[in-house]
Amino acid sequence: MRASNRFRVTFETNRYSVPAEYASQRLTLKAWPDRICVYHHDRLVARHPRSYDRHRDFEDPDHPKALLAQRSSARRQRLLKRFLTLAPCAERYYAELQQRRLNAIHHIRKIVALSETHGEEATARALADALHFGALGSEYIANLLESRARLTATPGPLHLTRPGDALELDLPDPDLADYDRLLETENTP
């Protein structure tokens, strides 16, 4: 019998898992009244308690571990590749980050997310500045990006929601006597 691409073998309508590396391979299944054993050539690769139910799926939690580790590694590689394309100094920043931080990939993930929010050019500049000052970590990059965003924002003109609001302002008349008193104190020896 051949395992499915989802690393399962079918016996009496039930599906039993095998290790992920045996997906789509030819395997031998032996059934006893209390268990199912699956072999690759003469090597035992899976063992499950036999079920007399119908259309059930039985998975050993250890069977998909290799596949999950491979997927996790692939995701990590894509994330790292995306980070390294942000700026010319990204590789050096990553090396420094690995030396000083416990979980460099966590910071890389956050910095890539910041680049999607603030743009790659601004993030590249923040990476270069942070590297120059030895500020390693996603929180430093976020701080640089947010502070620069506040500096570049120019305030817009005041917009009144109702045209009559400008007419209802009460401003006191200016008291010019303050200026006269100021001149008197300056001219007094």
In a few lines, what is going on in this structure?
This protein has helices spanning 65-84, 90-100, 104-118, 120-133, 138-152, 177-187, and strands at residues 8-11, 14-17, 28-31, 35-40, 43-49, 57-58. It is of the alpha+beta class.
How much is the average pLDDT? 86
The tally of domains stands at 2
Strand order of the largest sheet: 1-2-6
The number of helical segments is: 6
Q: How does the helix and strand content classify structurally? A: alpha+beta
The Rg value, from CA coordinates, equals 34 Å
Global morphology = elongated
- What's the order of the H and E elements? EEEEEEHHHHHH
- Strand composition percent: 5-15%
The proportion of residues forming helix, as a percent range, comes to 40-55%
For the record, give the distance between the C-alpha atoms at the N and C termini, rounded to a whole number: 113 Å
Spans with pLDDT under 50 lasting ≥5 residues?
Answer: none
Q: What does it look like?
A:
This protein is an alpha+beta fold and 189 residues long. The protein has two domains: 8-63, no CATH class; 69-152, no CATH class. It is 46% helix and 14% strand. It has a three-stranded mixed β-sheet with strand order 1-2-6, with no helix packed on it. Strands 3-4-5 form a three-stranded antiparallel β-sheet, with no helix packed on it. The radius of gyration is 34 Å and the shape is elongated. It starts with 7 loop residues before the first strand and ends with a helix.
